[in-house]
Structure formats: structure tokens, C-alpha cells
Design a protein that fits this description.
By secondary structure, this protein is α/β, with parallel strands linked by helices. A five-stranded parallel beta sheet has the order 3-2-1-4-16. Strands 6-14-7-8-9 form a five-stranded parallel beta sheet. β7, α16 and β8 form a beta-alpha-beta unit. The chain binds flavin-adenine dinucleotide and iron/sulfur cluster. Iron/sulfur cluster binds next to α8 and α10.
């Protein structure tokens, strides 16, 4: 890991050589991929500040100069909201950040967020010709980091003005949930001139971006700014308002006379392993653990009213982003030893590569091809360890990943005082239970047509509540698609 100043100086030297010069493909391919400056691992384990510090201006221009400006830009196909990637990258390479930002904003409402948390290596960057030519997806143009730089530039200079709102249509739309799906739908509906109210169950809007993804990966100030932008457009946000309890979906339509409803209530119901000992003190769902830490600011021990369990040895079960976030959070909250326990190998891990790298740098241990069969307690009902079965890899399953096969008789004990279960989420059943006419899958996901329309008249849905646990950008795309369908529907009534 190079120091920020060294990275900046190296990039400044290269920029001096290439600035204003016509470059051939070969020369562009020879430019070194720019490393993301980040906080020192030892230092950052003791604070909540953002780990990745963002490119310097010199770095962003060199990184953007690596783009080959392909005519048939495959990277756009890899972006769920089809941003004109060559367009915004070319503008960044010239140092024209205003144009770059305007191009991004045509397609994406939340670039400072997506530039930070999108799994780019599986999306836009997976299709990048540079990565393919260099036979390493890790050497693709860092599209997300460039996007982050441009979005931060606009934020810092107050250049991110609210979108224009059309004249009032007199129509009213309710949005349930204030995650990326709800925020995007609310913004697009408001732009069309409708009166929009967002109902949020928690006391703070933002969905998983506020209560799940930690501050050290996504500063809450950025999400807060997006919420303020929404409010400045005239969207009303009503927090501590649980649809299905405070008001039912039917009441929104019939009593409160909303003309349409968008449901973006996410997938917030944690899955458990169903093994013995899961009800012991010291076992948490990742959802609860991260919500306590993020939303309730449990790490701020002097001011927070919500305490966090004092842990020394922590096992986190799972291999996704949620598992990495929980493990890294536990370390920051003072745990001495944190181990990720995962049934498959690192190759099959669904977490973003960068999160796995950061977790390792921070001293998180990885116990692979292993899974708990029982959580063991002491005489006070607290966790004292886990009985863990070892696994080998078999044939690929329906997900395309090699199936974990238990090795009989391989059980062993692992001493831990805390277990965090991060094996996935299902959708919260409250809305469907209180609205039986809303059709859902067996897993509880709301069924929609290709425009986000549900089985109920005037009701649309999108994001994790439809897709199951997905990504911020996919949720955003779903919110945008459903808003377009609602706008079309309201234009015709
Ligand atoms: P959510 O963000 O879940 O928002 C739904 C909102 O609806 C919540 O605020 C909830 O309180 C509210 N709500 C629910 N029910 C009701 C109700 N009945 N009435 C009123 N309000 C209600 N994705 C990435 O792209 N990159 C990442 O790095 C990444 N990391 C993640 C880390 C963690 C810890 C988690 C949990 C998820 C992560 N994800 C990541 C996934 C991503 O955050 C989600 O896919 C995305 O937030 C889904 O957006 P959404 O708008 O559908 O729902
Ligand atoms: Fe890539 Fe995500 Fe940005 Fe699209 S929004 S260009 S997928 S980082």
C-alpha cells in the first residue's frame, strides 16, 4: 500500500507526460492502474472514518486516460442504469468534471454512493476492454472510483443542484421505504410534478445505506445530503411510520386517497441457521448488530444509549458484504480476534473483492470450508464456542458455484464469545400479511410485471422487496423503472 503523497506524485509525473497528447491504444494500455489511497489498516481499525480516501485529481485523470473509448462500449451493458461511461470518463480525463458529472446524472441519481459501493468488478468493470486486454479484471479502468471522484467534486463545490420539478399535476403518490429504491422513485415521481410522501419505519431515512452499510465504507453524510436534496424538491418524508401497522396499504389508497403507491420496503428479515444454541446470549443477526452500531451509534460509547455486546472473540458466519461489514465493525468495536466462517472457498465468496482485501488487511481471519453445526453455551446461557463441521467442494449447484459438501466426522470446537449470523435476508412479511391481495413468491418477495406493477391496482414495487437481497444500483434502477410506469399511468387518468 503506497502513501497518498507518493501516489499523487507518481500520477502527476505521468499526467505531465500525457496531458494534451493524442494517445495510441498501446500507450493507454501501458498506463499503470491507479491504486486507491486508503487509511493505514492499523490506524483505521480504531476509528469509524472512511477507509478508501478517494483518488487525487492527478490520479483520476491518469486512470481516466486508460479508457480506450471503445465505439461499442460493453461497460455500459454492465451498468444496471446504463450510464454513458466512455462519455463521463473522457470528460474526467480532460479535467472537465462539470460535464462528466452532468453525463453521470442523466442516468444515476446517487453517484457518490454507487461509486463507493457498487460491485463494479461484476458490473461495468467486468466488461471493460482494458481489463480483458490485460487479462485481469482487477486492471480494468476503475470506473467506480472515477465516478466517486466526480460526484465528490460536485458535492464539495455545491454543484449538485436538485433536479427541476414540473408544474403540479395534483396527483399524490405514497412511497413505502426510503432506501435507494424509494429515494429514486420519489425523486422521479416528484420531478414529474406529483405530490410525494415517503413513509419510513425507522427514525432516520436512507434504508440499508444508513442502518446496514457502515460509516467506514459509506459516510452517512453522503446519504443525508441525498435525503436533503429530496426534501428540497418538496418530497415529504414521514419517519417512524410503519405501513402495515400505523396505516395499512389499503388505507393509503382508500382513506388517504393516494393515487398510486410504490413499495420499496427492502429485505430486512434476517435468515438464521436453525442450529442448536442460536438463542444463546451473544448470538446476533448481522442486521441487529450493524443496526445497533450504525443507526444507534453504539460505537459512540460516551453518548449512545444503545449498548453493544462486549466481545473478545467473534465468529461471523457468511461470505458476503454483510459478513465483511459485520466482521470489520466488530474489530472496530474492540474485539481482539474476529473470524469469518464460510462453507466454501474465497473464490465463491459473494463479497466485493475490495471488502475481502480490506478485511484481511485489518487482521480479520478466514476459516474457509467450515460451518457451525451447534453453538455452545456456558451455565449462564452465554456463547462459549461453536461446534464446526469441515466441508469440501462438490459439483456446481443451481447458483453456478461449487456445492459445499460436509465431511462426516470432521466436527471440531472453536472458542468464541460472540456469533454474528450473516447468511442472508428475506423480505419482511408485515406488508403481505396485512394485504393478502398482494401476490408474493414463496420467499415473500412481491411479484411484479416488467414495469414494476404488482397484483394490486395502482400499486408498484421495486428493489430488494422484489429482487431479494440485491444491490444499491439494482434497487435504484427498479425505483426508476416503476416511477416511469407510475408517471405513465397517472398521465392517463
Ligand atoms: P432498503 O435499503 O432495505 O430500504 C428499505 C427501507 O424500507 C428501510 O429503510 C426500511 O426501514 C423501510 N421499511 C421496510 N418496511 C417498511 C414498512 N412496512 N413501512 C415503512 N417503511 C418500511 N449493495 C451494494 O450495492 N453494495 C454493497 O457494498 C452493499 N453492502 C451491503 C451491506 C449490508 C450490511 C447490507 C445489509 C446490504 C448491502 N448491500 C450492498 C445491499 C443493498 O444495500 C440493498 O440491495 C439495497 O439497500 C436495497 O435497497 P431497497 O431500497 O430495496 O431497500
Ligand atoms: Fe459502474 Fe455502478 Fe457506476 Fe454503473 S453505477 S457505472 S455499475 S459503478
Amino acid at each position: 500500500m503506497m502513501l497518498l503523497e507518493t501516489l499523487r506524485e507518481n500520477a502527476a509525473r505521468i499526467l505531465g507526460e500525457i496531458d494534451g497528447k493524442e494517445m495510441k491504444t498501446k500507450e493507454r494500455l501501458a498506463l499503470p492502474p491507479q491504486e486507491m489511497p486508503s487509511q493505514d489498516p492499523l490506524e483505521r481499525c480504531a476509528n469509524m472514518r472512511e477507509v478508501a480516501l478517494g483518488y487525487t485529481e492527478e490520479q483520476v485523470r491518469v486512470e481516466a486516460a486508460r479508457c480506450l473509448q471503445c465505439k461499442n462500449a460493453k461497460c455500459i451493458e454492465g451498468c444496471p442504469v446504463t450510464i454513458d461511461i466512455p462519455g463521463f470518463v473522457a470528460a474526467a480525463a480532460r479535467g472537465d468534471y462539470r460535464s462528466s458529472f452532468d453525463i453521470i446524472k442523466e442516468s444515476s441519481l446517487l453517484p457518490a454512493i454507487c461509486g463507493r459501493v457498487c460491485p463494479q468488478e461484476n458490473q461495468c468493470q467486468a466488461y471493460c476492454t482494458v481489463g480483458k486486454s490485460l487479462k485481469d479484471v482487477g486492471k480494468a479502468v476503475s470506473i467506480g472510483r472515477i465516478e466517486r471522484f466526480v460526484a465528490d467534486w460536485a458535492r464539495a463545490g455545491g454543484q449538485s443542484s436538485p433536479p427541476e420539478v414540473k408544474e403540479s399535476t395534483g396527483k399524490r403518490v405514497a412511497v413505502i421505504g426510503s432506501g435507494p429504491a424509494g429515494i429514486t422513485a420519489a425523486a422521479d415521481l416528484r420531478r414529474a410534478g406529483h405530490e410525494v410522501t415517503v413513509f419510513e419505519a425507522f427514525h432516520k431515512p436512507g434504508g440499508v445505506m444508513i442502518y446496514g452499510i457502515p460509516e467506514f465504507r459509506l459516510p452517512k453524510q453522503i446519504v443525508q445530503e441525498e435525503i436533503e436534496m429530496l426534501e428540497s424538491m418538496g418530497v415529504e418524508i414521514r419517519t417512524n411510520f410503519l405501513i402495515g401497522r400505523t396505516r395499512t396499504l389499503r388505507e393509503l389508497l382508500e382513506k388517504d386517497k393516494y393515487d398510486a403507491v410504490f413499495i420499496g420496503s427492502g429485505a430486512g428479515l434476517p435468515r438464521f441457521m436453525n442450529v442448536a444454541g442460536e438463542n444463546l446470549v451473544g448470538v446476533f443477526s448481522a442486521n441487529e448488530y450493524l443496526t445497533r452500531a450504525n443507526l444507534m451509534k453504539a460505537y459512540d460509547t460516551e453518548h449512545a444509549v444503545t449498548p453493544i455486546y462486549p466481545s473478545r472473540t467473534v465468529a461471523v458466519i457468511g461470505g458476503g458484504n454483510v459478513a465483511m461489514d459485520s466482521a470489520r465493525m466488530a474489530k472496530r468495536l474492540g474485539a481482539e480476534k474476529v473470524t469469518i466462517v464460510y462453507r466454501r472457498t474465497e473464490t465463491e465468496m459473494p463479497a466485493r473483492v475490495e471488502e475481502v482485501v480490506h478485511a484481511k488487511e485489518e487482521g480479520i481471519e478466514f476459516f474457509l470450508l467450515a460451518n457451525p453445526v451447534e453453538i455452545l453455551g456456558n451455565d449462564k446461557g452465554r456463547v462459549r464456542g461453536m461446534s464446526v463441521m469441515r466441508y469440501s467442494l462438490g459439483e456446481p449447484d443451481e447458483s453456478g458455484r461449487r456445492r459445499p459438501v460436509p465431511i462426516e466426522g470432521s466436527e471440531m470446537e472453536m472458542a468464541v464469545d460472540t456469533v454474528i449470523v450473516a447468511i442472508g435476508n428475506d423480505s419482511n412479511p408485515l406488508l403481505s400479511r396485512t394485504t393478502p391481495e398482494l401476490q408474493t413468491t414463496e420467499r415473500g418477495n412481491i411479484i411484479t410485471d416488467e414495469n414494476g406493477k404488482t397484483s394490486m391496482d395502482r400499486v408498484y414495487a421495486g428493489g430488494d422487496i422484489v429482487l431479494g437481497s440485491a444491490t444499491v444500483i439494482l434497487a435504484m434502477g427498479e425505483g426508476r423503472k416503476a416511477a416511469a410506469a407510475i408517471n405513465a399511468f397517472l398521465a392517463g387518468v
